[in-house]
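Ticket #4471: structure output looks truncated?

Reporter: J.K.
Steps to reproduce: submitted the chain below (124 residues) through the standard prediction queue, then opened the result file.
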Amino acid sequence: MQRIGTLIIALFGFLTLLPAQQMTEDPLLDLRVDVVYLSSDLLEGRETGKEGETMAAQYIARRFQDLGLAPKGAGGSWYQSFDFNYKAHPHAEEGEARTGKNVLGYLDNGAEQTVIIGAHYDHL
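Returned output as attached by the reporter:
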């Protein structure tokens, strides 16, 4: 769980690079709130293709929007879907078809090159 928290902190750490006028008065408090919510039992581990993953994706998309990012997913949305074959055991012959999603945000700073900020949050 500590590893997941570290990854989430690193992800949202990149968001602190946004212009100061788009940040709240206490970004550390906001970060704590984000980490507590995303690691809460309410999201049931954010397992890919499950309701907890959807709830986490929606939360992250709202936070990206609040921070001034623009959606850069499929069809102008925040999300990029992907299909995969879930196996509870990696050596199992058969699995369950699932669809997951990543969250993509974009900050247009007028530079020649662009950095895409994505959230790969669907890990137990």
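Triage note (M.O.): checked the attachment and the full token line is present. The radius of gyration is 16 Å.
Status: closed, working as intended.
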